[in-house]
Amino acid sequence: MATDYYAVLGVRRDASQDEIKKAFRRLARELHPDVNPDPKTQERFKEINAAYEVLSDPQKKQVYDLGGDPLSAGGGGGGAGGFGAGNFGNFSDIMDAFFGNAAQRGPRSRTRRGQDAMIRLEIDLNEAAFGTTKDIQVDTAVVCNTCSGEGAAPGTSAQTCDMCRGRGEVSQVTRSFLGQVMTSRPCPQCQGFGTVVPTPCPECAGDGRIRSRRTLTVKIPAGVDNGTRIQLAGEGEVGPGGGPPGDLYVEIHELPHAVFQRRGDDLHCTVTIPMTAAALGTKCPLETLDGLEEVDIRPGTQSGQSVPLHGRGITHLRGGGRGDLIVHVEVMTPSKLDPEQERLLRELSKLRGEERPLGQFQPGQQGLFSRLKDAFNGR
After folding, report:
1. What's the whole-model pTM score?
2. What is the mean pLDDT of the chain?
3. Where are the alpha helices (DSSP H) in the chain?
């Protein structure tokens, strides 16, 4: 055949119907006579319309692929040279290419769902570990009590828009290369609602909602962490026109603790003991989240070692049990000695054969606590 319809639309011969339709719509937007009135462009527009008429019809497409005359299959008329009504069975595709899906027309509702809201709540470590209940104040939009969300002053009501007659849109007819084309747009008088409010409510100015401060009780589950969000369904902003409210999200921010650092569900702290206590062993009292406990420092404990207190950390948010409390030990070497202390230490070093220690050198390594500090500092 003289015309390669696939080449006209710029698609492969095995292109799907969706690909053919997309190619036609793209070219229709570029070559439509109302967009580009050049005579050569009009001829090109006729060609793509004829090509789409054939390739979009499975029966005509099959005849065309077999080398026959597709216009004799299905009663089409005009071909590429004719531009009568027979060529515009695809008129809706051309309109969709310019104006989108017409199924979305019609008045829109004044009642819409409200937006979600979020509030920040600060809690301490003990509350995060075991959970708590908090009263919070929320400033959000609520239904206007004066008009009950209708937006109209008491004793009045919304009326049908006299410009669009309740359709929410107005139509305009224009002449084009295709003949008369009708386009629609939202009604400028009612903003697409189909109704107008002649006398708005004096309390909410016709919005159907007002700002109000409320007090809510929030249950904080045990194990929450920084950034945890608790959803309170239906406690957010009431929508315009008294529409259903959105949700309220409570975002948890955990305050720093004076002793403990949190890492997941484990707690970490550091105890500094003198050199003699590390050598001989000792017990150090520690105020944990569960009360006063003694940390057992074994004799010979080295700086950087840790003592775990199992089950003394944060409650697991999902699942039972708790994390651990890890006590890191730092051994403090005295920087000043009186004569008697110095004499005794020298005697001890002589007894241990450590008067002139050679030392043990090895590649540099970080202790456990140093690695933990680097992790907390983001190094």
Report:
1. 0.61
2. 83
3. 5-9, 17-31, 39-55, 58-65, 91-99, 125-130, 275-280, 339-351, 368-376
